[in-house]
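Hey team,

Sharing the Sigma-24, ECF subfamily run so nobody has to redo it. Sequence (348 residues) first:
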Amino acid sequence: MNVHISYKGLEKTPDVESTVKLHLKKLERRLQVFRPELVSLHGSVLQKSPRAGFVVALNLKLPTTDIAAEQANPNSAVAVKAAFDSLIGQISRHKGALRNEHAWPRRQQEHGRNAISEVPFEDTVAAIKPESVTNEDVSSYINANLPRLRRFVQRELRHREQDEKIARGSISVDEVIDEAIGNALSEAFERPEKMRLEPWLYRLSTDAIDRLAAGDSGGGNIPLDRPDRSRDGEGSDENVLQFHQPDEDLSAMSLTFDKNISTPEDLAAKDEMISLVERTLRDAGRNEREAFILFTIEGFTVEEIADITQKPEEEVRKSVHSAREYLKEFLPVRDPLSDRLIEHSKTA
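Structure output:
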């Protein structure tokens, strides 16, 4: 899909740009049935005045029609979300018309019409069938994103241990990852489209935790044949020795300060705040905590969270909203990170 977004009367800030990219990703999933080279989107984000707010205009050109949407709001993120939601709603109705819903047998009987012989849009040259996930796709994703998946599994195991759903240390991260990857590579599981690979792997991971927890007696007994996985380190300094030799002195040229890299103190503060958010949401409910963490920290869209949790999108939105309101009332400490998480959750 060809995309061109212009910003008028305001600077293209990272917050506005990230909101636009988030909804573009959501829009692209609705357009997988069309050939990408035949689809183009032109949009503009205009700030008329501080009082009038922001106006977002979108114009989508498809092989079969043109669709436009325009929304205004004092908040830029809300205006962007409203414009894309309006566009997606029109796309859904247009795709329904292309599928000849009016010619379905049930509707024909209701209206007393004869069947209309037409070629479904999915069989025309303008349509493209999404490819399913392959073993190579799974391997490529794991190679690039294994640390992120591990952090998610660690967070879920810690939450279940704190809630005493499983015994502490009874399930390791490696066990969950191994089972999730094994199921992903197995032909026994139905594979989704390539665009849904990441939420599918996250769902397999949560399913693996549930299955392993169901097989856990909860007595805290550790089998003698279970390897000790308490250490997360690599156990080797080979990576360091490849750059600095033991007898080599560090020079000033070897130490380059990068402002974009967080300091250890910054990382520790970030981890501590995320842990505090998780602990606070424990009393808000599992669905609320899960939806909020997946949306604000893991970066999934509402549709992807619905795939992971197997819940309707509207229920996911309500869970994110409930978690946000709960945090605003009960989070004991606020900092810029927690404020950004709470603000970002408004786009759900």
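The first strand starts at residue 2 and ends at 8.

Ping me if you want the raw files.
A.
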